[in-house]
Amino acid sequence: MRYIAVDIGASGGKVLAAEKRSDGFIDIKKIKSFKNIPVYRSGFLTWDIEKIFSSILDALKEAGEADYVLVDTFGVDFVLLDNADSLVLPAVSYRDERTKSVKDTLDAKMLYERTGIQKQRFNTIYQLMSIKEENPEALEKAETLLFIADYINFLLTGKKMCEYTFASTSNMINLETRAWDDEVIKSAGLPRSIFLPLSEPGSIVGPVSDEVAKEIGYKPTVMLSPSHDTASAVYASLASDDCAFVSSGTWSLVGALLDYPVTDERSYEENLTNEASPDSKIRLIKNIMGTWLLQKLKSEYPEGTSYDEIMRNAMDAEDKGRIDVSSDRLLNPKTISEEIDQMLLENGYSETEDLAETAKVIYLSLAEYTVRMIDKLEEITGKSFSTVNIVGGGAKDRYLCDLIAMLSRKKIIAGPYDATAIGSLLFALVKTGEMKEEEKMNVIRSNFGYTSYKREGEGV
């Protein structure tokens, strides 16, 4: 059988295909990549869903025949549909500032104890509350909430479902019952009726619609992936009792894979989040800004400057200090270098003199914060991690991986780079019985390989 994974990240999408050959080898290939750039509509920063879906159809057409299609996206964001299944509002991005006025209106400790999700102003619950406050008639018109991945599945098939790992990011799923928390929804003043029953990853959504089949030239079945991108990425990682993970992309998610949630005072104070994994485990995670900071900085460089040039410039630049890479101030600043300079001044450092020094601040701040959070995870969970597996696009960055290896004094294993799409594909292969779960790492190694970075004292 042949499988296609559609991975929509916060800055771009990619499509990969996997197939088990007659000799038993599982072959994974990249089909297509495309950009995903938010646009302003009606005063809001929104996702261009029409363009995203058009790019997906183009990629599916280019990929050719397949048996299954799986879709994942970034978390928390959603659309509201009316009784005719039309959009009530545009698909607003989590980077929009509409939630500023409501993020402190609920009891944060109560929310954390019940849902285990960190307090972030862009959480689904706060986005819905901002709609209730600023545009109540829109919420009144809403019949159904679909998270972005579920909405893409709906556009493909005409079937509406709500996948569990994605829903766990909403701040409205009860940790104990693994179902919508009616008390939390009531406390936020939201209509319970818009939330669909939860479906486990691996559930079948259905065949693509006749219209989509005509467009792409075949009629695959859509299967629910672990549709929150981090859930799929960690499925492709080496995460274990001895190995922490860093899912490094637009966001950097530093975490541990556990059999149980952690909602004690220490995890609450550190603002750690407990997100669902497809294997009934919990990802205890700290969200920090990731390569988004370098993406924003790149826009200030001359056109054509590569990330490799930015990395090499940063390596040679003077160290000007550190910033808090978990700060909301970095969500969507107009000019990232100016915001970083202001944060440096507030921390008692001097301003940077050029963009290379700004890049150095980003690299060192990301690496130090990552290592601090790995130490915190060890302290809170009682585990000791000898190894850290960095997956996602950030795993390509040699300087960042070197810094984390040097500062943590742990073995760093980088890869796979396309972990999210690969995780979706491996999940589907396991679900259909074409692969055993314990074979995952061999499949990744034979298709892509890993890069190791040595501990401090062994040289980097």
TrEMBL record:
Residues 3-234 form the Carbohydrate kinase FGGY N-terminal domain. One of its GO terms (biological process) is rhamnose catabolic process. InterPro entries: ATPase_NBD, FGGY_C, FGGY_Carb_Kinase, FGGY_N, Rhamnulokinase. Transmembrane segments: none annotated. Residues 245-430 form the Carbohydrate kinase FGGY C-terminal domain. Keywords: ATP-binding, Kinase, Nucleotide-binding, Rhamnose metabolism, Transferase. GO terms for molecular function: ATP binding; rhamnulokinase activity. Belongs to the FGGY kinase family. This is Rhamnulokinase. The lineage of its organism: Bacteria, Pseudomonadati, Spirochaetota, Spirochaetia, Spirochaetales. Gene3D superfamilies: 3.30.420.40. PANTHER family: GLUCONOKINASE, SUGAR KINASE.
